[in-house]
Amino acid sequence: MNVRPMESSDLPGVVKTHLEAFPQFFLSSLGPRFLHHFYAAILGDPTGIAMVATENGAVVGFVAGTSQPTGFYRRFLFRRFVSVSLSLFSPPVTKPKTLFAVVRRALRRTTGVRVPRAAELMSLAVAPAYQNRGIGRGLTTAFVSATRDRGSRAVWLTTDAFDNERVMHFYENAGFERTRTFTNSEGRVMHHYMKREPEFVAFARPDVGDEEIEALRKVITSGWLTTGERVHEFERQFAAAVGAKRAVALNSGTAALHLALDAIGLQPGDEVIIPDYTFTSTAEVVLYFNARPVIVDVDARTLNMDPLAFEKAITPRTKAVIPVHFGGLSADLDAICGIAKRNGLAVIEDAAHAFPTRYRGRTIGNTDGMACFSFYATKTITTGEGGMLCTNSDQYADHARIMSLHGINRDAWSRYRTEGSWFYEVIATGYKYNMTDIAGAVGLTQLAKAERMHQRRQEIAGRYNASLPADVLELPAYDAIGDHAWHLYAVRLNLEQLKISRESFIDELRHAGVGSSVHFIPLHLHPVYRNALNHAENDFPVSVSQFRREISLPIYSAMSDDDVDSVIDAVLSVAKRFHV
Ligand SMILES: Cc1ncc(COP(=O)(O)O)c(C=O)c1O
Fold first, then answer.
1. 329 alpha carbon to ligand 1 midpoint, in Å?
2. What is the residue-wise DSSP string for 85-140?
3. b/e per residue, 85-110, with b = 16+ CB within 10 A?
4. Ligand 1 center to residue 253 CA distance, Å?
5. pLDDT at position 2 over 80
6. How do the domains of the chain map onto residue ranges?
7. How far apart are CA 326 and CA 276, in angstroms?
8. Atom 7 in ligand 1: which residue has the minimum CA distance?
9. Which residues are the active-site residues?
């Protein structure tokens, strides 16, 4: 190998300038010839490997070679870089996993920078010679494996070893594009490959745009911002959409649940039966009354309340049941309402996920009990924050309306209207739960496109159902009696088919550019409920075992076809790579 080692006088200025002025461009801005000499000089021999790890925009370097750097390079490297001599390892480090473990440990020890995983290493390989001999070949292989599927964004293929078709195809198939090719001064062909930047597919994103901006412009310029005509129109239209007689708009789904329990006159010491597999709102509202949330287990397939468990939990103190339509799939309302009726219990549906959900031809919201919807930012329609209590009962609706605004009786207000618009009567200690016209305006806009948004969610669910690997994943139950709102697409991992945990699966999806989430951490595992209700971890075995396998994949109407493809590709790729 005929490389003139660089004189130390050549190097410091150039390197320092590059590193300090443009650290993030360091690798790509240095010419390949320079790099060639650089590593040859640093490492004393040209079998070297360098990587740049980025974390929060910080750039740190790692250089490894078969010999330790000396003199200036050593001092320089120890300040800015970490170096380890791979020749110290016997047998030489050739496995990517071991190599990265060494790199990560060394980086951590010497710079304090934590590189969470190999996938976050950007890479540059300089192994100009000896690629067919021992460690050089091993490192080449290590690099190829490391950059495959691993979040690397750029590679310089500077060695003869990389000039063969197979390796180039390999990168091209892994989503890299060749951006430059030229012959260097030593007559060697150099290739620069950049990974095509896939858009990160966020777990959730509201479908909002020009229509909402226009609605907001109008409401803000109208001069009326708080509860007014837009909220009342939203209530009318939402009630019509779900087939309910009445709808009361509120500032959250939690407020709707709270007012629903208030409307049935819940008292301290009363019991309300709720499923374990839900968000904290379902339980916290019961505790607001010093009443007791009685948690029951769920059905393993649907993750909705198990009606038998509900029936068994009824006591003389039970006043109500709150079934949750998990993910947008209706709970078994026939069974639950039947049991509730026989036992004289109120049914309050937690419909936070359930617009628009249908059950046996009936839309959720059309109920003689109450159904509580949420318009939180990730929900199927959103007002930023917001909620709606729907019911066919005037009594419940009137109660909720009065209590949503300080217990002010509007009838009294209209009765005495002639006495002046300043008059009102407070008839109960109420709450401040009213929806603003700002939110109402957004809600109306969202409602106008709700059908299109629901269709899109159905399409996405259809693509997932048809494309995701059914051996590794248990797909969500969707064959129930009615329409699924597809607020969530909740899969369960068949962990015995996988070499990795649910947490690692989520990490791998993120590294492949796909956000995901978990729904839900069972209520009884949260300290507040575990302590207040005296629960042990294995009290609700179905809920816990399903939670441990659950991952929610992105599903929202603002997803493009490419986004959907990316999710499918990422899941297939992770499932394949980590299949037992
Ligand atoms: C099952 C369930 N119930 C209730 C709520 C509460 O809704 P909000 O956030 O609008 O108060 C949520 C919200 O995420 C939920 O997932």
1. 15
2. EGGGSSS---SHHHHHHHHHHHHHHHH------GGGEEEEB---S-TTSTHHHHHH
3. ebbeeeebbbebeebbebbbebbeeb
4. 5
5. no
6. 11-195, 211-354+361-448, 450-577
7. 11
8. 253
9. 379
Point out the least confidently predicted range of 21-25, 80-84, 288-292, 315-319: 21-25
Residue 534 C-alpha to ligand 1 middle, in angstroms?
A: 24
Q: Is 552 in the pocket of ligand 1 (CB under 6 A)?
A: no
96 touches 119 (CB < 8 A): no
pTM over 0.90: no
Separation between Cα atoms, residue 505 and residue 276, nearest integer Å: 24
pLDDT digits (tens, 9 = 90+) for 211-229: 999 999 999 999 999 999 9
Into which CATH architecture does domain 211-354+361-448 fall? 3-Layer(aba) Sandwich (3.40)
Q: Which amino acid is at 384?
A: G
Quick one: tokens of 257?
């649940």
pLDDT digits (tens, 9 = 90+) for 242-290: 999 999 999 999 999 999 999 999 999 999 999 999 999 999 999 999 9
CA 157/CA 154 separation, integer angstroms: 10
Under the banding of pLDDT at 50, 70 and 90, the label for residue 106 is: low
Q: Which atom of ligand 1 is nearest to the CA of 252?
A: 10
450-577: CATH topology? Aspartate Aminotransferase, domain 1 (3.90.1150)
User: Distance (Å, rounded) from C-alpha 431 to C-alpha 288?
Assistant: 13
